[in-house]
Amino acid sequence: MDEGDEVELRQLQYFVAVAEHGGFGRAAEGLNIVQSAVSQQIRRLERELGVTLFDRSTRHTRLSAAGERLLPEARAALAAVRQIGLVAEEVRGGRDGVLRLGTVQAPGDRLYRALARLADSAPRLRVRLRRASPAERLAGVERGELDAALVRAATLPDHPGIRLFPVWHDPLYVAVPAGHPLAAQPELRLEQLGDLPMRLAAREHNPPFHDLVTAACRTAGIDPPHRAPFTGLQETLAELGGDAEPSWTVFYEITGLPRLPHVAVRPLVGPTVTTSLAVPTGTAVPTGAPTAAVRLLLRALEN
Hints:
two-stranded antiparallel sheet, alpha/beta, 9 helices, seven-stranded mixed beta sheet
């Protein structure tokens, strides 16, 4: 082929049709077009390839030696194009492709059970998980680096290009010293904790959860004094149980409720923490609705 020549898919289709029907006329009938169009495209294909594909006579049309050699290649090329179409259809339906998901640590094996359900409904869909801070996950969704992200206790005042779909609602727990009178209660309310110093991580470490707790305290009408900040759960509970001055902290379950000496863990009545799936709006789908793969993920997460 000379530079600038280009074989068209239509030409390969006509070439295969003439070979399979054994003639230009019958191929034209099978393709539902006029014979002259078939002949014209075959001649053009022969010019572009620089070979004669058919031995023509008034009595028959037969594949040339070059035609016999190129026919399997033409069939393979057409099959590859059909396969591309089939895969594209699967990708549009969310059943194939790659789904980039920002994750959180979820209680128990909840996330893995959801991913197993997704694999059952879309076995060819590959899920790539990415662990990052809440802010990095939301930014990844906005920039198109993630197709979706699980975020806990998130609100979106600064993210107009993201939509949240709540998927999980989990209770909050309060930890108090085991010797404190409140430890005798089977469950606690924020109104009971207003005078007891609170351990809460600085807002920059987890803005959504910090905002959730402080808003719940305002709603309950309390403004507890602050002690040393919450660091890690185990470290904070150990300090809380061994400190001479009583304090409390609030947390959500991830790997089971902790059991430490001198610490009592009680359910908190009222506020809960919501985990949502953050998806971009107005990008892949003009209406801002989730893509097909994300819709399959949402169903798997909500089951």
